[in-house]
Amino acid sequence: MKVLHLGNIANMAFAYSKFLRQSGVDSDVLCYDLTHVLSMPEWYEGDFYVEQLDEMSIPDNPAVRAVKLPDWYHRISTSNYWGKHKGDKVNFDYSAREQLICQESARYGYRWKIFPSELAAYRLLAETLQDNFFQGYNIALGYAYAAVPLYLVGFNRFVCVEIGTLRDIYKVDSPLNRILAQAYKASSHVLITNADCNQYAEELGLKQYSYLPHPVDEDVFAPIGVKGAETLKSLGLPERIFLAPARQDWKIKGNNLYLEAFARLLSQRTDVTLVICEWGPDVERAHALVAERGLQPHVKWIKPLPERTLAKVMASSELVLDQFGGLGTFGLIGPKAMACGTPCVLHFDVELHRWCFPETPPVLSAATVEEILMHMHDALDGAHINRQIGIKSRKWIEAYHSKAVVRQALQDVFVRVHNIADVESSQQHSWMTAELPNVSTMSRLGKFGTMFHRVCTKTNRMLQAVVRRIAFLLNGPRIIVQLQHSFDGGFQELRSEIRHALIEFERIVCEIRDENRTYRAKSDTLEMVCNELRAKSDTLEMVCNELRAKSDTQQMVCNELRAKSDTQQMVCNELRAKSDTLEMVCNELRACIDSQRASIELLLLGERKINSGNLSNVLDVMSDGLLRLEGQIRHARHETLCAMLNMRPHHLQFGCALDKRPEYDSERAITLKAAQQMLIATAPENWNLYQVCLDAGTESYRDLPITSCSTEAHEEAKLFKKFLGTYLTGYVLDIGCGPQPVPYYLTGYPDDAIFGIDPISENTDHPFEFYSGVGEFLPWKDESFDIVVSGTTLDHYYLLDKGLKEVARILKRGGHFVAWITEFSNAPPYNPLLKMESAYDSEHMYHINREWFIPMMTDIGLDAVEIILLEIPFNFLFMAFVKR
Q1: % of the chain beyond a pLDDT of 90
Q2: pTM higher than 0.85 for the full model?
Q3: 254: domain range?
Q4: Could you tell me the keywords of this UniProt record (predicted)?
């Protein structure tokens, strides 16, 4: 198969052709009457910078001349027919092709009617291209208005590539746009590169169209390091930049919006430079706005960059600013930025792209100055978030916008067009000699079958009438004048009837062909879907078999755990019985001592001769013994709870089953500073008290790191590890994980399954994924985690109720919240909005009491499943809750 690309706007034809040639397709490009530098292959292949540049002509520069063009790219001039002959009206003799075009256009109403004089201006262009370049190609692609000559010469296998022109034919009524609309209708297929243009395709009545991603070479546009920094330095640019490469066209691109946003940004910080490519119709307006707002020290103007240079600058930018007009789509800039792993800001309408991509691209959508300003702040403050967006962007490009995806989309269209053209060519004249199908056979084809049978029958009757009329005329009166008159008049009438019938027949045949193409396309799509479903079914079957095997293994493990649990339960019962016995002995001793105390008091009052000092010593000894006995009993209880916890089975020894990894929610992922500002705005009265407590707690934590609750040296941390182990599975979030590398109660659990958040820690402190923030604003999506842990953290919240609601939001249904709490039985109910005169103590705004804490958890959907009280050394509570 040999393919021709006609036209080369923005080097799209050159890029598509290069992609096809990399997969072995014989593909050529013919470019004519395009003079803009960004439409020249030198710009696509080059890696240089031209300081003095006229965007409408190729610069005479050694670096540009050094770019060698391939032999499959041809550049010619046709005297710019689009510009010079748009308004010409030329009288000429109708040719068969031009008559057919005019007749076809009249069928769609006066709005789309094409007149012969309007076609005359393009006759020489079409003939020149046909004579020199169209021969020998199986399929031709016409880009934008380059589809017109393919239609004029009657090329039977041509594909129209839309580059915004579907919008233009509705916005501007001109002869050229009407001819282009007719070319769209007559083409074998239409490739749409702008997501919003499918609505215009539907209005035009096009059925044979599909989406084609813009050509982006992910091997060129890729994340880079040192080379990008060297390129910035060679262009005289600083290390930290925002890049705006789109042309200055305020009506379409909305460039003035990001200029206003940047002006507001500079009023708060000046650690970034805005780099703007200096081209487009509104360059002077942009310069004037920059000067008016005093942005010159922080704005750098550069000329349009070749592809390879642009890729390095993009990959080194903090942010790429695209277009913010009313279209809501991206062109080439957005995908190029995503391929480089750089966040891209533009106005993006998700609904317009649902028919194009199965997954929404991870761009940063903004349509107002305030939204653009917000993304600028985030890009400068959230390096971690930028990296996450960059990784997602690159993966999305590889999955839905890569060279392989583009090649496959083009080759699918080529196969479909080639097969349809072969069938039409073989059946072009067969209907005239074939036997007329009966009504029952044609009725199975639906309304088009019935219509086709009716037209064939009508045509057959008219041909018979022609034969009868000719026979009548030949056998009629012998008077020459009368014969001539009757013959001419009858034939003129019959000719008119036959012409109308043929036009009607051709219209119906066109409709049948269009419908047939649609059915074939749907059939191909259904076949592909069926194959994919079969493959997925086989994969699911394999997964099910693996899951069954794992389930059997886990069942065996569960049986062993039940056996161990039964044994441990017996031990626990024995320990409880011993504890009850000790309690009874203690009560008896207490009663005995009380009675002895009373007797001794009576003796002191009645018998003055007895040395009262000796009796007091006896009483003190007995009291000390009682206190020691009570301490031993409390210690025995404590050891009993420890033994019970040590006998509990836990998941650490069996691993964990990991589901989909938790993802960040871009709307909730805010900086620590922004989160603190929002806390102050919600409850400003108590913030100063809270800041004092937070500072004191942080200092105390740093002074006593060995005995802190997250280290092995803390005895109760060992017990909490045992308590937590029963529930530990899947992905776990530790709220308030502290600056220790891994809290002791999570040691041994896989690092890639742990997430942490804390306001006094850094990302470099931990081997697991960490986020610097507060528990009141968790940056992850809903139902992301299997378990959430809080080790002595809840009494350090500023807004406890909001923090607990965030826990309930990110916890999966059936997931557990496990907390280690210090309980104060006399602690008043928590009220975040009540102004406090002082804090509860030096490090805590409030303390927690079960009487009001458990009902609060129930209200947000978390039910208590287990509570253990440790009375020594404090009233420590180990609590587990499950999400309904």
Answers
A1: 38
A2: no
A3: 226-394
A4: Membrane, Methyltransferase, Transferase, Transmembrane, Transmembrane helix
